[in-house]
Design goal:
123 residues; mainly beta; 11 strands; globular
């Protein structure tokens, strides 16, 4: 059974850091690019970052460029999102998703989705 499970969310003060993890099972991980998306209350879902199936290319939304870093460990079927210098506007539910394509894209519909993890940035 195909499954994506996010973890690592929580409450953090502005300027703090969190690392999200996305663990996958039930499919051939190496064939899939992985993306992180987020949705804040009352807002549309936003593409945050993605990484190619091999891990050799990445993309970031302008709003997180320079603060967030995506990486993947194909031996562990896990993708990470390191989030630094967090801002209140980063507050959202964060989802990881898998795209059966080698190249990383944030503007297409992904094939599989996790359940999400809440990130709250507040003092």
């Amino acid at each position: 059974q195909l499954q994506l499970v996010e973890s690592g969310g929580g409450l953090v003060q502005p300027g703090g850091s969190l690392r999200l993890s996305c663990a996958a099972s039930g499919f051939t991980w190496d064939y899939y690019a992985i993306g992180w998306f987020r949705q804040a209350p009352g807002k549309e879902r936003e593409g945050v970052s993605c990484i190619s199936s091999s891990g050799d290319s990445t993309n970031y939304a302008d709003s997180v460029e320079g603060r967030f870093t995506i990486s993947r460990d194909n031996a562990k079927n896990t993708v990470y999102l390191q989030m630094n210098s967090l801002k209140p506007e980063d507050t959202a539910v964060y989802y990881c998703a898998a795209l059966r394509f080698r190249i990383c894209l944030l503007t297409v519909e992904y094939d599989y989705w996790g359940q999400g993890t809440q990130v709250t940035v507040s003092s």
